[in-house]
Amino acid sequence: NYNKFRNIIREKLDKKKYYFQDENSSENPLFFCKLRMNNTALIEIDTQSRIMHQGIFLDIMPLDNASDNLFVRYIQYVCARTLSARTLGEKGYITSSLLKRVLIFLAKLIITTGVKSKLKSIIENSNRKETKMTGFFFGRTKYRNMFFPQKFLKEIKTLDFEKFSLPVFEKVEKYLKI
After folding, report:
1. This prediction's pTM
2. What is the mean pLDDT of residues 33-40?
3. C-beta separation of 62 from 31 below 8 A
4. Interior CA angle at 69 toward 64 and 72, to 5°?
5. In whole angstroms, what is the distance from residue 66 CA to residue 147 CA?
């Protein structure tokens, strides 16, 4: 649904009110997209010197199938972390951690555009098959919290939020605990 969303929003978005920052773009090198509100400002420290849309945003995160094989799932995790280090370097990410700065610097040197594409395809390879697990690969999630059962997403229920009744997946509470 993430890729369907990206295609539909490009076509149907009210461009007077909102701005869509696609993933892996010059404005947003990360592997998730952002929906920004026009005529607002929320300037992140690591993007303040960049010329780009700086409106209030909502992150749109993909969920990908995670391999049922633990070793392959760990490879997917390593690929995601490597890609994240590379894209954080492109974004201008600021950290006080010397280790993170060194890893980001090395990733910027080593990970070329072709390598980025290969890493992304390794992460997304399980999307072509049915798996028992789903992965949240591109957030700040630690390995032990990155994966959860596919069955959490199967059934939909509605929850009241302020004046709205919104669809959520049936096992949302279990997901949030993970």
Report:
1. 0.84
2. 97
3. yes
4. 70
5. 7
